[in-house]
């Protein structure tokens, strides 16, 4: 079982939309800022926080009150790192890279 990176976002959030491109690269191309992502070690899950009917349990469980937010789950499904937004794009991008690197080092 792989670690999971959950990305909580909203369509109404411009910062979320910018970060969604970076998260999409991790998901589709298998890298973030030159760091290779081994698919069997990290799964990426983009969560639409606007769809509260579907994602309310996760939003509550991981205490996501603002978007964008990242939550890194270990292979057993436990939250091992998280961040809440909003922060400047560059900081959130650095957080994404740090979380991916952490997942790859396990």
TrEMBL record:
Gene3D superfamilies found in the cross-reference section: Glutaredoxin (3.40.30.10)
InterPro entries per UniProt: Thioredoxin-like_fold, Thioredoxin-like_sf, Thioredoxin_domain
Domain Thioredoxin: 1-101
Descriptive protein name: Thioredoxin domain-containing protein
């Amino acid at each position: 079982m792989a670690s999971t990176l959950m990305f909580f976002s909203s369509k109404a959030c411009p910062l979320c939309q910018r970060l969604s491109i970076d998260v999409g690269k991790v998901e589709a191309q298998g890298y973030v800022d030159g760091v290779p992502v081994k698919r069997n070690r990290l799964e990426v899950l983009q969560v639409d926080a606007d769809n509260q009917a579907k994602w309310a349990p996760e939003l509550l469980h991981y205490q996501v009150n603002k978007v964008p937010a990242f939550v890194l789950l270990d292979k057993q499904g436990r939250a091992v790192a998280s961040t809440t937004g909003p922060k400047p794009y560059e900081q959130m991008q650095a957080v994404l890279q740090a979380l991916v690197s952490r997942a790859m080092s396990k």
